[in-house]
Structures are given as structure tokens and as C-alpha cells.
Amino acid sequence: MNGQESIRPEKTGAQTDESHLKETKIDSEEIFSGRIMHIQRDHVRLVDGSVTTREVLRHTGAACVIPITTDGQVLMVRQWRYPVDQALLEIPAGKLDHAKEAPLDAAKRELREETGAVAGQWYDLGVFYGAPAYTDEAVHIYAAKDLTMGEQHLDQGEFLDCTSVPLEKLVQMALQGELPDGKTQLAVLKLAELRRRGIF
Predict the structure, then answer these.
(1) Which CATH superfamily does the domain covering 61-196 fall into?
(2) Tens of pLDDT, residues 133-156
(3) CB-CB neighbours of 74 under 10 Å
């Protein structure tokens, strides 16, 4: 089995009428434009006819990968996260360089840069929105195996430690509240369940 394989379940095909929930944009004002994100203030009309304001953070998206070795070790990174003022243990991840970059290409790049590893097999574990109440950032999750190790190639200004942790230990950490990074929790628990089912 080579390359990328989707292991997401088949869609049920059920159609849901969401017209009674839809919000309609009236106008939009950009209030901040940064290097990796933009913030806009929109006026929207609700289904009851009233008008409200939505402040939205627009983001090109990101990709992350949970890389596992043949003996069940997951390659992890620990890095300082300035907004939460602490170092977090995470799976390798990074933003898409531009809106049209393929998420799988971004995941491969981040794995190589942050851990030095190149994977022979990739699996699509789906996409999630971490904070859909105020941002459209979509995070694409991949699993990778058949790893060949090399040297890190960190970006300028990027400082992190690379380590390996048994998948079983990461599951316990997630369940005990010791793994606060959201994308990492989700990837760990997804991978553990897939392995339990004999899929991965």
C-alpha cells in the first residue's frame, strides 16, 4: 500500500436542510491584515431578519502529521507557544504557505523540517475546524509510517526539541489532561482507535 490513502468513513449520503440556520453576509470590513492571518468585521442577517456583527479571523489553513515508527513510537516536538506562555508537546504541524498549497505537501514539508523524517506511506485522517465560532482555519490531519530519519531543517527563528513517545503513553496523557494541544489530542486518539480496529 503506497502513497496517500483516505481512511475516513464513507459519507452517509443523508441530505440535511440547513436553510433555517444560514446567516447571510451584508457587508465586510477588513480591520487587520497580518503575515499569516486577516481579521474582518462582517454584518450578517440572521434567519429572523435581525442583523448582527461577526468578527472573523481568516487563515490559509494548516496541516499536521502523526508519524509512527515500526515499534509504536510517535515522533513529537516540544516548542514554545507564545500566546499561551508555555512549551507544548505536539505532533509536527505548520500553516499552508499559500491558499492553493496541497495540505499533504505541507505535511510532508513540516515532517521533514521539524523531525528530519521522510515517510514512505501517508494516510488521510480528515480535517477539522479548531475554533469555527471565529475562524475558518482548517487543519488537515495525516498519519505517516515507513519513516527514514535524517536531519532537521528548521526555519529561521524556529526553535524546538524533537522526541519520541509511545502511542499508548500519549493516549494516557490525552485522557489525563496532560496533552493540551487540540490537534495533537485528536490525532493521537484517532490513530489509537484505528490501530485498535486493525486499520493502520
Answers:
(1) Nucleoside Triphosphate Pyrophosphohydrolase (3.90.79.10)
(2) 999 999 999 999 999 999 888 888
(3) 22
